[in-house]
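Methods, example record. To illustrate the input and output format used throughout this study, we show the complete record for PINc/VapC family ATPase. The sequence lines were provided to the predictor; the line carrying structure tokens was produced by it.
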Amino acid sequence: MNIVPDTSAVIDGRVSERIDDGRYDGATILVPEAVIGELEAQANAGYDSGWDGLSELQKLTDAVDAGTIEIKYIGRRPRADEQQGAGEGDIDALIRDLAEDHNATLLTSDVVQSEVGKAKGLSVEYVEPRIRGDEELPISEYFTEETMSVHLKAGTKPKAKRGALSGMSYETIGDTASTDEQMEEWADAIETLARKSREGFIELSEPGMNIVQYKNYRIAIARPPFSDGIEITAVRPIAKTTLDDYEFADELRDRFLERQRGVLIAGSPGAGKSTFAQAVAEFLNENDYAVKTMEKPRDLQVGPEITQYTALAGDMEKTADSLLLVRPDYTIYDEVRKTKDFGVFADMRLAGVGMVGVVHATRAIDALQRLIGRVELGMIPQVVDTVVYIEEGQVHTVYNVKTEVKVPAGLTAEDLARPVIQVTDFETGRPEYEIYTFNRQVVTVPLNEDETDDTGVDRIAKKEIEREIRSAARGHVEVELKGQNTAVVYVDENDISYVIGKGGGRISDIEDRLGISIDVRTHSEKPKSAGGVAGSGPKTQSMEPQGDVVQPEITSRHVVIRMDEHVGETVEVRADGEYLFTATVGRGGDIQVSRGSAIAEELEDAIDRKRQITVVAT
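The corresponding predicted structure is encoded as:
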């Protein structure tokens, strides 16, 4: 009888175990040189698994001396590239080939190796992997009942986030800094545990980063050069809730059961978004909806009836295609972050699947605004009709989202009616925001502002009037609103004729486009007191600039402002605090203004005069 053990079987001591109980009496043990190479590499790195395997080989030598078995070393040492590809199965393939060449039985504790061997027609003996230790996470000692995450890094003291969701604190939990050796030992033990345990798996394996799922722990292991040192971050949920534990529980239950919906669950990191998403998933499952999840990594704590899918071949679009064949009633998408994620979410929702997406946002309205520029504006209410904002583990705000054809709040001209996305407070029914297109720009207007005298509509109206007048005026322009449909524009005396146009034609065209009556005057006619009224005109250079300071790039065709963190957002561009124009950041993360346009000339002039250019999210 010929036996070829692989690395897992040698490390687990499964060969000597079978020699001791008599099953391998008289057998010839064919030990691949590839196994010895792996064990040496692990032992040289200080891993216990390597030393355990070498100890097993010494036991086999003792069995040869006793005349119980015969041992031979076969094959070749693995090359360096094969050692690096061990995680991809390169060394396992060498061992399988040797078992086939020698007509031997393959002994393994690796379930993948076992299944591949059987598929290739080999004689395979699979034994359950032996978990060294007590099958507990090596760093479990750092977790208490109130510990949400543990943060370990070589050269630093262990830290953890502990407390209730309403009062989480980041604190040092150890007196001694972790060493490189200790971190490597922990990392190796965690990865080995995940591979061997039925309750764990490697969710992601990339050069420099492994993500492990073990029981209810999600563990990220980072190594150089991806990180500047070995780092282990372990996270687990500290609460499991039901929908009954939240405010508006009855109303939300009725809303979910009424029909399949598009829902965004928003909140800041650690606010309890995923915990609420789990509660929604369990509720839907209990009410006879077919529920699936899309996660990378998979860490939602849901029951076995809810299948958790990850990115198929690294692509959530492929996962979505597969899910459409499975026909779920609801899909929980954790997390929706990138433009492609929003596209997948929208496609599945428009295909009729109920979708619940988890989104990072600091305000409830921000979650909805992240769809702007990624989903056609008129389709947003069909994609998302409910926004649930979570703060400190509780439902803070719920918004209802719908479309109406109406004149936007604050405007009066009937010919300004257009499709308006109306965002209303779920509890009170009071409209909170309106989102619509105004003069080719997407604007989000708050309807209940108390902070300033100007409403959101007032500010948008001023900006658009300024834009139109500046297309004709060459000098400074100021706008003062006198009512919902009347404004006074102050320009340089030399610009009066250009702005009014021949026979008043130009200003009449502007009034018709905006639906506002405009009185054009010179700056000298402006009352002195008006200059001190908050919001009566554009900000002057004496005002302190606000927002992100940017350095526009001037190319042969465009003036480009990079805004990678604000894709899809509507922003104001200012020079020394003075308003220049409003724009929507494109999908590529930039604002492009065509050179030769009035806006570009004004922006280039501000750059030439070394004025500070800032961008402010509106």
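Annotations derived from this record:
DSSP finds 18 helices and 32 strands in the chain.
The CA atoms of residues 85 and 394 lie 46 Å apart.
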